[in-house]
Predict the structure of Major facilitator superfamily (MFS) profile domain-containing protein.
Amino acid sequence: MTAANVARPILKLLPIWIFIFLFKFGAGLHYTLMSPLGARVLPIWVMGLLIGGSAFIQLILDVPAGFIMDRYGYRKFLKITSVIFILAAAAMLFGLSTPVIIATLMLSAFGWLFFGPGVDAYLLSHTQSEYAGRVMSVRDTLSSLGIVLATAALGFVLGLPMSVMAVIVMVLIAVAFLAVMFAPKDKVSAVAEKKHPAHHYYVRRHFIHHTFAVLKKMNPASGMLLILGFSASIFYATIWFVVPLLLDSANGGSPIPSVGLAIFDFAVVALGFILGRLADKFNQRLLVFSGLLIFAIAGSAIGFSTSIWFLLLGFIATVGDELAGLTLWAWLDRLDKKHTEDGLLSGIITFFCDLGWTIGPISAGFLFNVIGPQWTMAVGAIPVIITWVVAAIMVRPHPRVVGETVTPKPHRRRYKG
């Protein structure tokens, strides 16, 4: 397979790459603005409930949204989701008030709803199986880049009038909308063919009551992946709720915590290959134990410094998280060679990740004024510590077969999306 053969199908999707980058930039900026803007007119605990509630909307409607897009078209709903988000940003033009905050947050929830599953299904429906891994990697990289710019801009944007904030988000999403207009039209349904080894983790089509039926079939590895995804999501959601509040209260202050929000995903992009090699070669139990211990210690300490230590601890915490996740994924792949329950397993694991993004802001909102921002972030790491204890009991070495291959682990985002 030549470089030209690989580049051609990726370049063909250039409009969708522009769309992903700009949508993540604009929507990510909108999400980070919600907790500080809302806290100016509402109690922080109420904002926690509202942000958690918007995540819950996505949690319960994710699968129905997928079925709707399968029937009516992915590209069409990527355009619709852009229009919804432009309306969410436009609501901010009416000034800072409780109705405006509620309106923009609820509209954005439906804007996010079709983005993730729509992009994943669109890309897989347009990609041949031999290129699917590379295409999804480009998607992950551009999503991360959009979030990096959104978090880097947060400190500056918070000092602007709300109407200017609205215009910035509207322009970014509007240009994304124009880009997706030029994207290739839908070809086939993403459910027609399995094109990626982790296809079911990108295209989820099992309702909740079917998804929970697989719980009794879960092995220790899938159970640990569920617990890790849940606890890690609570931790990251807590950080994403608290840091913008700190930045707003400091009237800008150090930009490091803002940029630090992007370090979580950057660590995975930067070191994913190296960590994957470690997961393949070394003792599984030791890697899971060590990875979760690193995650727990660095995660507990991250909130007590807004200096360069915030970046370093964020980087280290995510390295520990990814090391444990990659190792558990490799273990799961060895235990489940038939992969007959991939769709249901992906559904239940993703459900608990989304549940973590619902619980994180809610708990952080209640704790923020009671124990302070630093300890709120530390408490957000307690589920990770519990996961480490559970792993120490549950994880056992599993023998490898010489020359075996492991299904690539799908990327788990450390940001809203």
Notes: Residues 206-417 form a domain with the Growth Hormone; Chain: A; fold (CATH 1.20.1250.20). The chain is about 75% helix and 0% strand. The radius of gyration is 20 Å.
